Amino acid sequence: MPEHSGRAIAADLADFWTWFRAGGVTAFLASLPPSRDLQLDYDRVLVTGDSAGGYMALMSALTQPRGAVRAVLAQYPMTWYLRREQADGYLDGPAPGPGTVDEHVAAIVPGSVVSCATPPARMGLSYTLSAFGRYREFFGEDEKLWPLGLIEEREWAPPTWIIHGDKDAAVSVEDSRLFVKKWKERGMGNEVRLEVREGQDHGFDVGMKESEEEWLRDGLAWVEGKWLG
Predict the structure, then answer these.
(1) Which residues contact 125 (CB under 8 A, 6 or more apart)?
(2) Helices 99-106 and 123-131 meet at what angle, rounded to 10?
């Protein structure tokens, strides 16, 4: 955002899964030199991602046919639109002002496609959209574009493990708690687990090692059992 909307994201995600189920990954690997004769196990698919990637993982689990995804690992996922408290500082400098988004939009070349960005690029936009209440203005108002809204009309999802820090300033841990609450109220046919880590902010797990963190080792073993079992 703001070049693209939530509907565009959802359309891209649907296109990816169509390509994936049609053997797109297998064909791609076969095209690489030297040719790789790899046979993928499409019956055992794990989806995982952090933050916006966690959003994509959960949306995949909720939109794909039953059995298409065996398990989900979502790290501090966006289950609802971003909102945050305004602050004087952000990252290593002053916080962007409310005009940041308008200045960016005014400079957009019509038809521009933005498919990636390496942080800290565009992080000021994320801050401004969430701190000044403009996220849904560009993403869209449809609640079904979010896991928290979509789960209301679903009856099944694959086993899912969510991890989140309780001091996350970017993605509210309360959204993860509410998503898990709704999951359990609806049943969803499989177990969901939520690991909330005390005192941890967004991206807290980047430098962690499975061998040094018992909770992480145990959680990953659970995910692996659901994925490959």
Answers:
(1) 1, 2, 96, 100, 101, 104
(2) 130
In the block, which residue shows the tokens 């189920």? 21
The CA distance from 61 to 3, in Å, is 26
129/170 Cα distance (integer angstroms): 12
- Asked whether the CA dihedral 38, 11, 81, 132 is positive or negative, the reply is positive
Mean pLDDT of 66-74: 96
| C-alpha to C-alpha distance for 129 and 59, rounded to whole angstroms | 22
Dihedral angle over CA of 109, 110, 115, 117, nearest 10: 30
Percent of the chain with pLDDT over 90: 81
C-beta separation of 66 from 154 below 8 A: no
Tokens of residue 205, six digits:
């797990």
Tokens 């916080």 correspond to 95
- Tokens coding 86: 């305004």
Q: Which two tokens stand for residue 22?
A: 């049609």
Please report which residue ranges of the chain form alpha helices under DSSP H: 6-21, 24-31, 52-63, 99-106, 123-131, 135-139, 147-150, 173-186, 214-228
| pTM > 0.70 | yes
**What is the per-residue pLDDT across 1-53, written as a single tens digit (0 to 9) for each?**
899 999 999 999 999 999 999 999 988 888 888 766 777 899 999 999 999 99
Across the beta sheet with 46-50, the strand order is 46-50, 71-75, 160-165, 192-197
